[in-house]
Recover the amino acids of this structure.
């Protein structure tokens, strides 16, 4: 019998809270949302998707963060400040000709997961923007210094934002 057959998703995430959610979702045949929801409660909190613009606007003031878009075809990472955007024509529009910019379908965001968990031997702190299909639109990670330690000011801002908007 395989590990998947003998271990429930919740048991898997309790035993390995740092597991790559995309890998676990494939292994268990579930959505990314279900994997995040299976994390131990101490590792995750949720805000409504309607907070999308508020969260993105606040993160724009944090300085250098890492934004990741993980698909079956690759993992795209942007590290740098994210410009503030605005809602127009059904998109959250992030302007600028350089750095991260584009048009995000903010209305498809169903939930935002605020996650603190071990990942590759270190604490990882991120926001996962979960869409209406149970996928992850993108992830934003709290920045790190030259020693790969979390930036204390961003960590404090992350936790304060989560305290304010999580349900």
């Amino acid at each position: 019998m395989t590990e998947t057959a003998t271990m429930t998703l919740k048991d898997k995430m309790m035993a390995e809270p740092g597991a790559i959610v995309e890998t676990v979702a494939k292994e268990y045949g579930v959505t990314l949302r279900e994997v995040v929801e299976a994390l131990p409660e101490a590792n995750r909190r949720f805000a409504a998707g309607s907070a999308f613009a508020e969260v993105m606007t606040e993160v724009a003031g944090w300085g250098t963060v890492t934004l990741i878009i993980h698909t079956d075809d690759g993992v795209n990472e942007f590290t740098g400040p994210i410009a503030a955007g605005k809602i127009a024509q059904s998109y959250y529009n992030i302007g600028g000709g350089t750095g991260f910019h584009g048009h995000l379908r903010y209305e498809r965001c169903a939930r935002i997961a605020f996650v603190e968990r071990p990942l590759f031997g270190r604490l990882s702190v991120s926001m996962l923007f979960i869409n209406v299909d149970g996928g992850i639109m993108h992830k934003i990670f709290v920045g790190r210094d030259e020693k790969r330690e979390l930036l204390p000011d961003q960590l404090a801002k992350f936790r304060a934002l989560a305290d304010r908007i999580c349900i």
